[in-house]
Every structure is written in C-alpha cells, then in structure tokens.
Amino acid sequence: MARNVLLSVPAFRFFAVNLLVLLHLRQIAAGHDYNDALRKSILFFEGQRSGKLPPDQRLRWRRDSALHDGATSGVDLTGGYYDAGDNIKFGFPMAFTTTMLSWSVIDFGKTMGPELGNALKAVRWGTDYLLKATSKIGNGIVFVQVGDPYSDHNCWERPEDMDTLRTVFKIDGSHPGSDVAGETAAALAAASIVFRSRDPAYSSLLLNRAVTVFQFADKHRGAYSNSLRRAVCPFYCDVNGYQDELLWAAAWLHKASRKRQYREYIVRNEVVLRAGDTINEFGWDNKHAGINVLLSKEVLMGRANYFASFKQNADGFICSILPGISHPQVQYSPGGLIFKAGGSNMQHVTSLSFLLLAYSNYLSHANKVVPCGGTTATPALLKHLSKRQVDYILGDNPLGMSYMVGYGAHYPQRIHHRGSSLPSIAAHPAHIACKAGSQYFLSPNPNPNKLVGAVVGGPTNNTDSFPDSRPFFQQSEPTTYINAPLVGLLSFFSAHP
C-alpha cells in the first residue's frame, strides 16, 4: 500500500528548506564530464574479470586468472566477475550486477553513445558465465560460487597468483537457493531483452535458460543461506529471504516474454511473497523497490491495471526517500548523500538513485506526478535528486573528493582491492605468496595499479568522512553492484547534464 505522508507545518518547512539546499547547493566543481565518468564506470568491469582475458582488454595490468575454475566438479566455470576486492566469484551479487547492467542498457542505452558497445561486452561477460553456471539445470543443479571465502580472505594475493581453494558450491533440489537462482533467472531474462535485436539467437538462449532456472527456483523453494551457510555467510548471506527474488524474476520474465503466465504468477503471489515489504530497500539482497518500479511502468503506460498495487508501493517508495520527510530507513548526510545503516553505503546510493531516475522517466512519459502529503514529487524533482547523488560521488561533497578512482583530481588512492594494491605481473613477474602480500596491504603507499572507474563504499556515517585506507574495507572497497546502476545514471546525465 502507498505510504500516505502527511506533513505538519514544521515538517513541511524543514522539507522546503532541505529542498532549497539541494536545489541551490554550490557545486564544488564547475561541472562534470559525465561522458568521461561513464567510460570509466564501464572500464572498471574489465578490472574485475576472471578467466581468459580477451585481446581487446583495456586494463592491461590485469592478466588471465582462475583458468581451472570448475574442473574439480567436471564443469567449466571460468570467466565471470570477482565481486569486489577479493578473488571469489559469488553468484548472487554477480547475477544482480548483470541484471542492473542490463536494465541500464534497456532504459538508457540510447544515450550511451560510443560506450554502448563496451556496456554490451560488460553484460555479456556476466551472462556467458551465468550460462555456464546453469549448464546443469537439466539435472537440477545451479553452481552459485567458486572459491572458499575463508581461504581467500586469509590471503592478500593477486588473482593471477591464486593458490587458495577454488571450491565449487552448488544448489539443487535437496539444497535449494531460490534467492540466487531467482536473481540468476532475472539476469538472464533482462539480458535477453538487451540482445533481442542485436543477437537474436543468443537472446533466445538466455530467455529459454531463464525460464528453466526460474522453474527450478520456484519448485525448490528455500534460501541458499540455509543450504550453504558456511560458504555464503556472513559474506552474502540473504537476510531478506528468497521471496522477493521469485517476484523479481517473474517480473523480468514477464517483461522479456510478455507471457500471461508470469503476469498471473505475480498477481497470484503478490501477497504470499510480500511484495509490499520494505518499499525503500533495493540491492543484491532485497529487490522490493526494484520490483515495484519495474512493474509500475506497465501501469503508467496504461497497459496493466492488474499491477496497480505495485505502483502504489512505488509511489510510497518515492515519498519515503524524499529529503526532509522523516523515515527511519533513509537519511541524508550533512553533505546530501543518501545514508543507510550498514557497510558499503554507495551500493544504496547508486541503486536507489537509479530507481529515482527510472521512475522519473516513467512518470514523464505518462505525464504523472507522485503526491506526497504536503508536497508533490515531480519527474524533474526526482531527476534532480538522483543527479545530486551522482554529483556527490563525482566530487560535489564536503571533502571535494571523487569516490570514483581515476575521475577528477582527488580520488581514493588506497582502495581495498588485491589486484590494484599488489604489483602487477609486468612489474613483478615472480609469484607473490599468500602472506607475502600482507606488506602491500599494510603499506601506506598508494596502490600501484589504478582500477579506473571503481567506486568505493564511501562514507558509512552521517559526517561525510572517509578514511582512504585499505583496512577500512567498508569504506574503501569497490564492488560490481555499486557500479552497475551507476552506468545507467551516467548514461542519462551524459545526454542531459
């Protein structure tokens, strides 16, 4: 149900003052080169690649790695992305990353210009791996992780030097994982839209696989955190449950296939799978706000009144995130950054800002606004709010620092990332053993290899402070799922600065 926000006079004045601050905040920079930031945000994914690197690899300090992944289980699991600054391939965040890269292309690909080709390569690097991970779906098996996180996190090694355990983890009928399987189905379905006209055969393969994986996820319901607790917790433990991923997957399958069965599944399971819960949460663990925004487009276009409750939820999401309207789950730092409790705050900033922008566009096309008690959320206001978050990331903040490596004059130098912080193979051809890398981890020196485009976790408190230090991983570690939504945001603002 929509959150009906009624503001008292003092609260409304507080909102108005905050809004004026946001609208007129003096920019620290004269403006931003969103095209340059877009190029770098996509380039970052090349630094996260696992497996055999292609001839057109642009970040040349990276080399081939993990070329035998899956061999112990008799399957080829090479490729894909390392999720963050470690050398593990976690399927859950990788699938979400792929979904968001795909959504970025679907909604904003027309404004990517010459970077569209690189964005498509980033999507395909993810889907090629997800196809491998689901290659045994006919036997009721999905591979969801490669690498033992405890072994990996006990070392500070380049991915090219890895000698830690490359254990393969899977889910099956007896050990379900509807969350990771559902997200994988969503990623494959979303990517099938991306490639529908560009590579029809590949698109069909992705969609057919998505259908099969979703059927598996729905038939064998359960959280992968229960089946694989030691391997995935506390790293990517799904504390939110698997129900949202089932709806999320069905929503993308509906969008990709236009088949009635998915519409009926969504409507039939809306209450059972708690579509209205936590309306302002969105990320690798919680899909609720994303489901509501995605399905609302159908309602706003006048095509699907059966999804009306999702639009009510999406409107409630918008109202809950406006600055000046008190909500316990969403706050703003003094510098204007969206702040949510927990680590790696930028993941919330980019994901929620993406939804603000996407919904703004849907509202614009339908000539609609969102009433929020004493104020009105117009498409222009939502675009401004999302742009303010992007500009904060790029340097319009109290520290005057870009949180994107390689963008601007002042950015993080000591990011929590093994490959970036250790000498490259070209500079140091000899093997660097597990514990031998500790000296580089503890060094106060800047990282020798620039992971261009990487956006770090950023401030995790409401004082806008940032320690540029590797041990402070919640602030200094980049992740693929921070960057993926940012690709769409930067695409739009590169054409609409």
Descriptive tags:
mainly alpha; Glycosyltransferase; polysaccharide degradation; two-stranded antiparallel sheet; Endoglucanase; 497 residues; carbohydrate metabolism; 47% helix
Describe this structure in words.
This protein has 497 residues and is mainly alpha-helical. It has a single domain (9-495), classed as Glycosyltransferase (Alpha/alpha barrel), CATH 1.50.10.10. Helix content is 47%, strand content 5%. It contains 19 helices and seven strands. The protein has helices at 9-24, 34-47, 91-108, 116-133, 149-153, 178-194, 200-219, 224-227, 229-232, 243-257, 260-269, 288-300, 308-321, 346-366, 379-394, 418-421, 438-442, 473-476, 480-495; strands at residues 89-90, 141-146, 168-172, 331-332, 338-339, 370-372, 375-377. The strands form three sheets. A three-stranded antiparallel sheet has the order 1-2-3. A two-stranded antiparallel ribbon has the order 4-5. Helix 3 packs parallel to helix 19 (480-495). The longest helix has 21 residues, at 346-366. The radius of gyration is 22 Å and the shape is globular. The protein starts with 8 loop residues before the first helix and ends with a helix. Residues 1-29 have low confidence and may be disordered. One of its GO terms (biological process) is cellulose catabolic process. InterPro entries: 6-hairpin_glycosidase_sf (IPR008928), 6hp_glycosidase-like_sf (IPR012341), Glyco_hydro_9 (IPR001701), Glyco_hydro_9_Asp/Glu_AS (IPR033126), Glyco_hydro_9_His_AS (IPR018221). GO terms for molecular function: cellulase activity. Keywords: Carbohydrate metabolism, Cellulose degradation, Glycosidase, Hydrolase, Polysaccharide degradation, Signal. Residues 1-31 form the signal peptide.
